[in-house]
TrEMBL record, chains A, B:
Presence of the UniProt keyword Oxidoreductase in the record: yes
Protein name (Swiss-Prot/TrEMBL): Ldh family oxidoreductase
GO molecular function: oxidoreductase activity
Entries under Gene3D superfamilies matching the protein: 1.10.1530.10, Hypothetical oxidoreductase yiak, domain 2 (3.30.1370.60)
Domain of life: Bacteria
Claim: Amino-acid biosynthesis is one of the keywords in the record: no
Length: 359, 359
């Protein structure tokens, strides 16, 4: 097991020693460990290794700050200058939140970015400010269009965060594929098979082999509807912002010649423009309680609100620690050694790499 | 077969004779017939009968104009005053388009509305103005939350329209259910069964009986993801605007005591704030052509862009006419007789109600 705070400190120090300005190193580390805390392993410290490799290869530039291309009224276009996606996304969020407070709502289009972690990382910060946030991003090609056989669209994520009162906030953070490709990456790392219907292999055949799926295509959520949702996210994040789209969004694991050219799209809405915040929160609480009070299907213990499970995981993992797959623990150990840091200082009890047993 | 222009004129005259101001009668008629032209029968003139019944019962008020509740910067809150949804939606769209041109983008939240037809009706008008439009609406309860057994959420539609250059515009207009409930209504009217996986009956059991499905629940698109998407649409359209949400959105076929209390949410974006419109359209054309040029799966003749099929249907049906199910043709005939109008004047050749054969 790993202590979340020490693990976050380890990642922050690694990024800092690799030349990332301290404040930005802290952002990236926080975004990764928050994902592990929420149970979204696919976007957690498992990404540290690839992020470091892209910095070391000069494919990400941690020294160039994101720059505003144009900004008027409530619309801003931001160029990420190929910095870490989490750094670029945080800058875009800060602009979106400030503009929404000033104008009632705001839109920030982003180009020149990289994989920005989870949308939830940004939505949770907006929720703290009583803002509703819609955030989306395109990604490198992993899904075929409906009727196609090879990857064209990314699993372009859609995230929506809404503040509530006494209830947990509404927090949808989904890939537009049947499942997040990261889940398949994790399965491949664990050497586990994947359920049918998740993906097709490179020849377009259904597969339960995680590695074959990674070499093939993840399938869109709900067929043509998921295809269309993924497309409009690519259009807003990429075609409209001047970022890459389709094949022009580069795969961070495979393309070592070019930057990723990822684009994002943020929409922030100030609740108070529609009704007093407290009234809105009471309505959200009522809405959430009505859903949770619905009669349950056989075998269902509880009807959950999007984000509720991840919130509970966070509380649990902050207490009990974060368990990492052996492969990830060993990657972090190697990175630590390279930068004169010891990840085992963040580990405790059995299940840590020091304890040997990881499972 | 029915001539689309004459059918639209018939509907417009019916609404006008029922006391709807001429300009508004024209809007509602155009919205219905456009849906039939696009092949979205579920939102076509099949709705004339229920719209008329609600006006006659005093559950819709065609005489009260929508009123702006608050308007500042780029955020507007509109009260539909319980007018026709298409009238309210058109007013909201006009505000959204004007504000987007002035501010780069705009948001219009709407309460006090009714069933507003297809989102495509609004998106196509925005596309003509080189605007990107996201429009959503909540609806009366037809889908269970994930883990539930009875309807709580509507099949809350999401529509996104994006202009292109020489290619057809991107136009996604989807229900957040596996299929639009209207398709099940049409199946029930035709006395046809529905595919497995579309719906559950009132006891939560899978069913292929269209009527049993209408008495039960339509299932959300892709399970928990569709549940969450439908929820955020309900939150933005209903909880945030002051409209109904969940059980507070009334079923237009079943509740004759109260107005529907439907809410909508419009987001308009001016493409020119991000790059010159012509450059954007070239990028859209490139994007669309890249997708359509993808290798096709076995048996697939063509990879389609969202909205492409409906555009072709429109061209075809404007030439060949609109075929109506006997039940709908007879409803329109009865409505015509009631208001001293003859729908058969819009019919031609076999397949019309005069010709007898409808199939």
């Amino acid at each position: 097991m790993y202590d979340w705070a020490k693990l976050q400190q380890f990642c922050e120090q690694v990024f800092a020693r690799a030349g990332v300005p301290r404040a930005n190193a802290a952002i990236v580390a926080e975004s990764l460990v928050q994902a592990d805390l929420r149970g979204v392993e696919s976007h957690g410290v498992v990404r540290t290794d690839i992020y470091m490799k892209r910095v070391e290869a000069g494919r990400m530039n941690p020294h160039a700050e994101p720059a505003v291309v144009s900004e008027r009224d409530m619309v801003t276009l931001l160029d990420g200058s190929n910095n870490f996606g989490a750094v670029v996304g945080t800058r875009a969020l800060d602009i979106a939140m400030a503009r929404a407070k000033a104008n009632g709502a705001s839109i920030v289009g982003v180009r020149g970015s990289n994989h920005f972690g989870t949308g939830a990382y940004y939505a949770l910060k907006a929720i703290e400010q009583d803002l509703i946030l819609l955030v989306m991003s395109n990604a490198s090609q992993t899904m075929p269009p409906t009727g196609g056989v090879r990857p064209f669209l990314g699993t372009n994520p859609l995230c929506v965060g809404v503040p509530a009162g006494q209830e947990q906030p509404f927090l949808l953070d989904m890939a537009t594929s049947v499942v997040a490709r990261g889940k398949i990456i994790v399965a491949a790392q664990k050497g586990e098979p994947i359920p049918s219907g998740w993906a097709i292999d490179k020849d377009g055949n259904p597969t339960n082999d995680a590695q074959a799926a990674l070499n093939g295509s993840v399938l869109p959520l709900g067929g043509p509807k998921g295809y269309a949702i993924s497309m409009f996210i690519d259009i807003l994040s990429g075609v409209l912002t001047g970022a890459g789209y389709g094949k022009y969004v580069n795969n961070m694991y495979e393309n070592w010649e070019e930057p990723q050219q990822v684009g994002h799209f943020f929409i922030a809405v100030d609740v108070s423009r529609f009704m007093p915040v407290e009234q809105f929160k009471r309505r959200m609480d009522d809405y959430i309680r009505l859903i949770k009070a619905e009669p349950k299907a056989q075998g269902v213990e509880e009807i959950l609100i999007p984000g509720e499970l991840e919130h509970r995981q966070t509380l649990l993992r902050k207490r009990q620690g974060i368990r990492l797959p052996l492969k990830v623990a060993m990657e972090l150990d190697a990175i630590g050694q390279k930068y004169g840091l010891d990840v085992s200082a963040a580990a405790f009890g059995e299940g840590s790499i020091m304890g040997g047993s990881i499972a």
